């Protein structure tokens, strides 16, 4: 039995990496819809169809006991349709606004939430912010080009840095206590965000919280059935096989970085 991790591209590899660290005795399938990345600028009906079709293909091919939509945009658009279709745990992601707001409450600082344009304009994001009564001190920041940079493996360099400096210019960064990386692709730029933001601004993402939620769901809904895998990971893409090979390479690089190997 396997857990499917889905993303439009390589962003969800950062979530898969966290899952393998915390849950090494599971088997994993990673599917990237690389043919249609980025999702953040697409029509929402198209995104829902792409996500549902990809998950359907993986569940027909493999024995799947849980699905993780490791993409904030895909979650905001398609998570309910997936939960209506499957009885297994279906875990989504949302920008980590709640922990960011808790962190800054004492200091009365603001929270800057970066995400794709589609994530930020969906009602799900507005409801998330309104649900914790944080509208007055949460500011959205769309970073549409960052996904494209990531998919080209441009994780640093003058072009990327100039883009981020430009989009951050309108903000008085001294007013912020937390910066939320609300797209899994953005986590590849954590070091660059650290360089560009004031030292006291905390960088927050939802990866660990998502994996912890997955663990709890498996323990409650599938007691005794999870945690019996070999740690095998299969990579799939909507592009030809060499794209799956590229994802394998990037994932192994993430593992090497965590282990301190260069």
From TrEMBL:
Residues given in the record as substrate binding sites: 7-8, 39-40, 72-73, 184-185
GO molecular function, one term: glutamate racemase activity
SUPFAM superfamilies documented for this protein: Aspartate/glutamate racemase
EC assignment: 5.1.1.3
Short name of any one Pfam family annotated for the protein: Asp_Glu_race
Top-level lineage group: Bacteria
Active-site positions on this chain: 71 (proton donor/acceptor), 183 (proton donor/acceptor)
InterPro entries: Asp/Glu/hydantoin_racemase, Asp/Glu_race, Asp/Glu_racemase_AS_1, Glu_race
Annotated keywords: Cell shape, Cell wall biogenesis/degradation, Isomerase, Peptidoglycan synthesis
Family: Belongs to the aspartate/glutamate racemases family.
Function: Provides the (R)-glutamate required for cell wall biosynthesis.
HAMAP family per the UniProt record, alphabetical: Glu_racemase (MF_00258)
Protein name, entry field: Glutamate racemase
Protein species of origin: Xylanibacillus composti
Source species taxonomy: Bacteria, Bacillati, Bacillota, Bacilli, Bacillales
